[in-house]
Write a structure and sequence with these properties.
148 residues; mainly alpha; 2 domains; 5 helices; 2 strands
């Protein structure tokens, strides 16, 4: 019985090429392409980002409209800035949620009563739990061997 191949990659080979391999392959692929937007097709065919697609097409001697190129690159920059902004907002929201979980009386606020009063673990109870956990972690020192 033949052994089964391990770790077989299902991603098409052209999408795993490095730049040199992509350029060699693209020299034969470009004449066969008959679509309208060569940059978009190159990007999808070789699974590269927009700046890489524009750079490599320029290396291959393909003319790209400068206005279109700038418009696409500006859109990419805008998307990256939006991702950063969303990430910061999400982090700020998570930080804000932590602030609401405690106050000067409670180390952890579990919830609020119908009248709006908080309830949960007080700072004193929190300190007691921490000290009891630390005491439980310390090894017991008996000083004698009991396996005689």
């Amino acid at each position: 019985m033949a052994k089964k191949k391990r770790g077989q990659n299902n991603t098409p080979r052209r999408k795993r090429f490095n730049r040199r391999q992509r350029l060699d392959s693209a020299r034969s692929w470009l004449p066969t392409y008959d679509g309208g937007n060569i940059a978009k097709a190159y990007r999808k065919h070789y699974s590269v980002d927009w700046p890489t697609a524009f750079r490599e097409l320029a290396m291959l001697g393909v003319e790209i409209d400068p206005e279109y190129k700038e418009q696409v690159l500006e859109s990419v920059r805008g998307q990256a800035e939006a991702r950063k902004r969303r990430r910061k907002e999400k982090a700020a929201q998570a930080e804000g949620m932590l602030e609401h979980c405690q106050d000067e009386n409670f180390a952890y606020i579990v919830g609020y009563t119908n009248w709006g009063f908080p309830y949960g673990v007080t700072w004193e109870e929190w300190e007691e739990m921490e000290t009891s956990e630390l005491e439980g972690l310390e090894p017991e020192n008996t000083g004698t061997n009991s396996h005689r």
